[in-house]
Design goal:
The protein has 467 residues and is α+β, with helices and mostly antiparallel strands. It is 55% helix and 18% strand.
Length: 467
């Protein structure tokens, strides 16, 4: 918008300059040529009157007057008789026939002739003026002056250059002033654009628009502010409902599960006991769903990120999940660099991310398989990967696995919220999460977190632990 306004200002300025300067330049050029021609014609008439009596009486030609004029002005003076044969020439021999020259023929007919033409011999522009030498209605000859018009051309050229310089200064001034004006005009629009970007990023805070903004922009900003406020209220209410409902459902679900377990113990191995066990499994799955919904609600409203040693957390979570890995006959290994691995993350997010990823990896890993957790430092981020040896996912399922409640089939255990929760926590920390194929088969989950550089010298050696 700013560039368009500036280009509009410059375009209008160029049109105005062309409309003013081009006529002025052509007028000045024509005026200079007319002045030069008029002066040359006056001199030619004076010289012609001097030689009028000489040609009329047939007396010898005195070249001194023409030679003094030629020496003073640099002009060439040619005088011919009525037949066009030169009787005086300040630059060449006489008795040459000039009757074939258009201006000479016109002057011998009793008319004046003048103009500017380019001389290829001298490689310059020449002004020629031819006037008849006549008395009593009879033409006795003609006088022609030729002058170098280079000086006039130079004056015209300098005038055009001065007009171009004025145009450049005006365009520069209009460009600077137009840029400032355009920026001031588009400033409210830029602020609205910044607000729209903040809304898209999830920040629904409303900032006041400058009071000097146009009425239309103020009205649009007010409408956007009302929209953002209502949307923030709706999202807050939705998050609060999910969090409160999840929290409130945990207690009755726990009580229901305990009663069903007591009932199952009383019924023993009877057919009704099997039905109760199935009900217990459903309450267990419902409890997991409620717990994941609570985590998801918290991930949508994370606290500010903090400086965290991801290496310490990864080591602690591997120790915690080792017992479950041993029970599933799966080797759990951690590869991490030596020393602290600092990152800017939401408090508690790394623990939840690892818990969700390890839970999924152990669930799909076959007996005798291996789950590898790798922690690496990159230039500006920390890379955390969890690789399993399960069946993996095709490209379509990799995309759908990050959607909420997608489980890949009714027979797949879980709530379908593990990966979306991990993705939300990674993004809340300013990072991201992606799925890829593990070399040799299986799934590779990559998590990127913002790295905090430290002045500690790291050896880059990996420490691993196999369970």
């Amino acid at each position: 918008m700013t560039r368009r306004l500036l280009l509009g200002y410059l375009a209008v300025t160029v049109v105005v300059l062309l409309a003013l300067e081009l006529p002025l330049a052509f007028f000045y050029s024509q005026r200079e040529e007319d002045r030069f021609t008029a002066a040359a014609e006056g001199d030619a008439v004076v010289l012609a009157s001097y030689y009028e009596d000489v040609l009329d009486g047939g007396a010898p030609i005195d070249p001194s007057q023409a030679e003094r004029f030629a020496e003073r002005t640099g002009a060439r003076v040619v005088v011919t008789d009525s037949n066009g044969i030169s009787v005086l020439d300040t630059a060449a021999a006489v008795d040459r026939d000039f009757s074939t020259r258009p201006e000479v023929a016109q002057a011998l007919r009793g008319e004046r002739a003048s103009g500017i033409r380019h001389s290829t011999t001298l490689n310059t522009d020449l002004l020629y003026v031819a006037v008849p030498i006549a008395s009593g209605g009879s033409v006795h000859g003609m006088l022609r002056l030729t002058l170098d018009a280079h000086e006039v051309a130079e004056r015209v050229h300098r005038f055009w250059l001065s007009l171009a310089a004025v145009a450049a200064v005006v365009l520069g001034a209009v460009g600077v002033i137009g840029w400032a004006v355009a920026r001031s005009v588009t400033r409210p629009l830029r602020e609205l654009q910044a607000s729209a970007r903040r809304f898209a990023d999830g920040d629904l805070s409303v900032e006041p628009i400058p009071a000097d903004s146009p009425e239309e922009i103020v009205a649009l900003a007010d409408a956007m502010g009302v929209m953002a406020t209502r949307l923030d209220e709706l999202l807050s209410a939705q998050r609060a409902f999910v969090g409160d409902a999840s929290h409130q459902l945990r207690s009755p679900l726990t009580a229901l599960r305990l009663r069903l377990e007591n009932l199952a113990a009383e019924l023993g191995e009877s057919g009704q006991g099997a039905e109760v066990e199935a009900a217990i499994d459903e309450t267990r799955r419902l409890s997991d769903l409620v717990s994941d919904l609570l985590k998801l609600a918290r991930a949508d409203q994370p606290p500010p990120a903090e400086r965290t040693d991801v290496g310490v957390i990864a080591t602690d979570r591997i120790d915690t999940w080792s017992a479950m890995a041993d029970g599933a006959d799966v080797a759990l290994r951690l590869d991490r660099p030596e020393g602290a691995v600092w990152a800017s993350v939401v408090p508690g997010s790394v623990e939840q991310i690892l818990d969700n990823l390890l839970d999924n990896a152990l669930a799909v890993s076959p007996a005798g398989g291996e789950v590898t957790v790798t922690l690496e430092r990159a230039e500006d981020r920390v890379r955390l990967t969890v690789a399993d040896q399960g069946p993996g996912l095709d490209d379509e399922h990799k995309v759908r696995a990050l959607e909420r409640f997608w489980r890949g089939g009714q027979a797949t255990p879980g709530t379908g919220l593990g990966l979306p929760i991990a993705l939300g926590l990674a993004e809340a920390s300013g990072g991201g999460l992606s799925l890829a194929d593990r070399p040799g088969g299986g799934l590779l989950v990559e998590v990127y977190l913002p790295r905090i550089n430290q002045s500690v010298t790291l050896t880059g050696q990996a420490a691993s632990r196999t369970k």
